[in-house]
Design a protein that fits this description.
The complex is a heterodimer of chains A (115) and B (113). Chain A is mainly β. Chain A is built from no helices and eleven strands. In chain A, strands 2, 4, 5, 6, 9, 10 and 11 form a seven-stranded mixed sheet that branches. In chain A, strands 1-3-8-7 form a four-stranded antiparallel sheet, with no helix packed on it. In chain A, a hairpin with a 2-residue loop joins strand 5 and strand 6. The termini of chain A are far apart. With 113 residues, chain B is mainly β. Chain B contains no helices and twelve strands. In chain B, strands 2, 5, 6, 10, 11 and 12 form a six-stranded mixed sheet that branches. A four-stranded antiparallel sheet of chain B has the order 3-9-8-7, with no helix packed on it. The chains are: A mainly beta (115), B mainly beta (113). The interface between A and B is medium-sized, with 28 and 23 residues.
Chain lengths: 115, 113
């Protein structure tokens, strides 16, 4: 158990809909990362938050948004969903993102299926 | 540009044999970290091993070792005495400025009995 909690584990929805994925980082970790894993794109970094502030942005679509709350949990909002958004979405956390040797702890992921 | 390349989409190894999974990276930063993660069919990402750019010795963690060749910008994972439970996807990753990891495309390892 990595200590990172993601809910829900599975999500099935329709095109055009909006969903929210939730992540609770490991106790004490200030930084949260969101990744998207699909067969064609592999593991793509979406966005990173550190102590409530956006720190880095990757290949995140404008239809997607995220935030980190004062209690450090994070939510990833996906709107106007398309078939191509079907993927496994991971949340990861770390305490000191500036340290090279600090690994990321990953949650078990949310499998999103857009029908 | 910072990039991780894994050129082996799939690999087979006989149980109890050793296997090497290739990884090359590209970065202009003098300080960086390299990681390997395992993703079994259940989907979770499991940390295996870390190598720092300034580390003089190759990292080892149990049956896992990292063959780090800085001049060649390669960080190959060596798994000794393969077990059936080693069958999984393996990802090489590099830590870049700000703390995020960028990943390679992965290598699917199948261990044959």
């Amino acid at each position: 158990d990595s200590g990172v909690t993601q809910t829900p584990k599975h999500l099935i929805t329709a095109t055009g809909q909006r969903v929210t994925l939730r992540c609770s980082p490991r106790s004490g970790d200030l930084s949260v990362y969101w990744y998207q894993q699909s067969l064609d794109q592999g593991l793509q970094f979406l966005i990173q938050y550190y102590n409530g502030e956006e720190r880095a942005k990757g290949n995140i679509l404008e239809r997607f948004s995220a935030q980190q709350f004062p209690d450090l949990h994070s939510e990833l909002n996906l709107s106007s969903l398309e078939l191509g958004d079907s993927a496994l979405y991971f949340c990861a956390s770390s305490a000191n993102p500036g340290r090279n040797n600090e690994k990321l702890f990953f949650g078990s992921g949310t499998q999103l299926s857009v029908l | 540009a910072q990039k991780i390349t894994q050129t082996q989409p799939g690999m087979f190894v006989q149980e109890k044999e050793a296997v090497t999974l290739d990884c090359t990276y590209d970065t202009s930063d003098p300080s960086y970290g390299l990681f390997w993660y395992k993703q079994p069919s259940s989907g979770e990402m499991i940390f295996l091993i870390y190598q720092g750019s300034y580390d003089q010795q190759n990292a080892t963690e149990g049956r896992y070792s990292l063959n780090f060749q800085k001049a060649r910008k390669s960080a190959n994972l060596v798994i000794s005495a393969s077990q059936l439970g080693d069958s999984a996807m393996y990802f090489c990753a590099m830590k870049v400025q700000g703390g995020k990891l960028i990943f390679g495309q992965g290598t699917e390892l199948s261990v044959k009995p």
